[in-house]
């Protein structure tokens, strides 16, 4: 087993060891029962402390990839090699836990504070603008209440989307714009059309857990690329490309879920260079675009859709009940995805698309998001200060959006934080949900909109004291 461990990358040594062993097991070189180097030998070979090796081996054992034999050492588990057949590394129970957590977001007792929730508070939304648009559509466009939308989507809405993507520097035309039922359907169409069981994709670590579940459901192998405050780590990505041939790399480039980080231009250029050299495509999820106060270059801006499929949507801002998203890509791919959309869902909601188009046409949406951008940036900056008061560490300070990725001092497993929060009537999700392999994590996602609540402050203080 050949491991590459580089202390200068900023990626924790434990993470590098875990990833290196997983990569080796996923290759054809590892056999059932193959012996791993001893803790002492691995530490000596790489001139590092034994502690990260001990922690890495413990994680691999807990994930069922490695067996620990008392007095003998560590060996590749028989069950670990089934991961090479396409289902990835996670225990199947992880997918069940994730689906339960997603359902729980809608069924928590009314008194629970959803500190990790992914939604903008209701009082922040432009409910008046939304209801005016609904009244306008029901009075003047009755067809949208009754009939199917066209497969490509509402024509006026597609024109607005085209204007929006051009504002961030993406040169496209109408034939490259497809309206979807939220960004989730856009991801699903891509997975259905471009991937098959056994294919490998790169995802962010940490990243969007619903995407991880979708990929596993299709039998796709996930390889996590460590995420930094500037985006996916290009050095780690390049190392992983030595052993893996991903068809796609899914990334959330602006105000990333869960870290709140935004892709920097130097990192974007390096990642695109790797995509061109190794012949894979990025799926750029830009669902939080409208929360960004000052636009930055996207991968799609720099690449102009040659190696990038671009996704956006309105569900995070307009209304979660109106599932409206969009996908922008090269014309050939759009034509293929229309076929998949028609066969799986016929069309989107004509009504939802018409209401969204009306909000955009009447100027209500522009004014609303301008207010939302300022508000989320102020609240997020305040949440960073609040967490700092109680000794919490924040992964980065986002320039807006809803999310902070944070950890409390001295707590290595965020499940302890989840249990602690529940006693105070607070709903949290453990950090391992956001990791593609379900590895233990000290970090949790915090919705900054609720960080100033008295219950949140009391929880932050209690966890900080621990």
UniProtKB/TrEMBL annotation:
UniProt superkingdom: Bacteria
Key word Transcription present: yes
Listed GO MF terms: DNA binding; DNA-binding transcription factor activity; pyridoxal phosphate binding; transaminase activity
InterPro entries reported for this sequence: Aminotransferase_I/II_large, HTH_trans_reg/aminotransferase, PyrdxlP-dep_Trfase, PyrdxlP-dep_Trfase_major, PyrdxlP-dep_Trfase_small, Tscrpt_reg_HTH_GntR, WH-like_DNA-bd_sf, WH_DNA-bd_sf
Record key words, sorted: Aminotransferase, DNA-binding, Pyridoxal phosphate, Transcription, Transcription regulation, Transferase
Family stated for the protein in its record: In the C-terminal section; belongs to the class-I pyridoxal-phosphate-dependent aminotransferase family.
Name of this protein: PLP-dependent aminotransferase family protein
UniProt source species: Cupriavidus pauculus
